[in-house]
Design brief:
Blueprint: E1 2-7, H1 15-31, E2 36-38, H2 63-68, E3 74-83, E4 86-95, E5 98-104, E6 129-130, E7 135-138, H3 148-155, E8 160-165, H4 178-193, E9 196-201, E10 203-206, E11 209-212, E12 216-218, E13 224-227, E14 234-239, H5 243-251, H6 260-274
Parallel strand pairs: 1-2, 2-3, 7-8, 8-9
Antiparallel strand pairs: 1-14, 3-4, 4-5, 6-7, 9-12, 10-11, 12-13
Protein name: Putative amidohydrolase
Pfam families: CN_hydrolase
Domain CN hydrolase: 1-242
Length: 277
């Protein structure tokens, strides 16, 4: 399967304009035989939602979204989802004009400049899902930093992890280097879950924050097989061999001995001890 990494900028609050740009990019990817186009987190709405006076959230069944999946390739697109009472930072997967899967971001950062819990509610489910191309799972940005989530996705049969992100460059002196962290994290995730990891980060400046790009694909051995440039918009293509996942998992069956009963017992103990029920 051929994947296109749509490393894009977007205009904060300009949903219509961002939809036009997304459609153009998808058509360009289709012309180069892409099977799947992956966009960054919140690519249709922008990230600094607190600066907007209006509600720009979208229904998952908005026909404009379905239309994005009618140009040939499957599409993963990020947006602020209208969940009636609540809003969600969501990534929707479309194929042939139909919604296949909706992942709502599970872990919303609330530190430094990030204030996602003010504008969105966390999702409640982590599910792998079947597509015409293979079994996948989505982890939106900070979700990928929670080590149990990639493991759960792999245990649920995911062979490809899609990781749309809005990762900014270093914010303050002494803060972590996001490029280094993401490199190490993605490499570790691909190696331990023995799967393909498709990371797509945005670029551009928004509300005083600069996003660095650096989108990439990591193979089941932990090697980067494609890397997009930093700072600039780009459309990067890479071919994925899903049989490589099965080969790797057979060579070293790290995932086979999950011991779910052990995990359930220890989680139940920790829940009881913490009072977090």
């Amino acid at each position: 399967m051929r994947v296109a990494l749509a490393q894009t900028d977007c205009r904060l609050g300009d949903v219509e304009g961002n939809l036009v740009d997304a459609e153009r990019i998808i058509k360009d990817a289709a012309a180069q035989d892409a099977d799947l186009v992956v966009f960054p987190e919140l690519s249709l709405t922008g990230y600094a939602l607190g600066q907007l006076a209006d509600d720009i959230s979208l229904w998952p069944d908005d026909p404009r979204l379905a239309d994005l999946g009618r140009h040939g390739p499957d599409v993963l697109i990020g947006l602020l989802e209208d969940g009636r009472i609540r809003r969600h930072n969501s990534a929707l997967y479309f194929s042939g004009g139909s919604l296949v899967h909706n992942h709502r971001k599970l872990y919303l950062p609330n530190y430094l400049i990030w204030e996602e819990r003010k504008h969105a509610s966390p999702g409640q489910h982590m599910r792998a899902f079947d597509t015409r191309l293979g079994r996948m799972a989505t982890l939106i940005c900070n979700d990928a930093w929670q080590p149990m989530l990639p493991w759960l996705a792999a245990q649920d049969g995911a062979e490809i992890l899609l990781v749309p992100a809005n990762s900014a460059a270093k914010l303050t002196a002494g803060s972590i280097d996001p490029v280094e962290y993401w490199h190490d994290l993605l490499t570790f995730t691909a190696r331990m879950q023995q799967c393909w990891v498709v990371y797509v980060n945005r670029v551009g400046d928004e509300a005083g924050v600069r996003f660095w790009g650096g989108s990439r694909v990591i193979d089941p051995w932990g090697s980067a097989v494609a890397t997009a440039p930093t700072w600039d918009e780009s459309l990067t293509f890479v071919d994925l061999d899903l049989a490589a996942v099965r080969r790797r998992r057979r060579e070293i069956p790290l995932l086979a001995d999950a011991r779910m009963g052990l995990l359930r017992r220890e989680l139940e103990r920790l829940i009881t001890e913490s009072g977090d029920d």
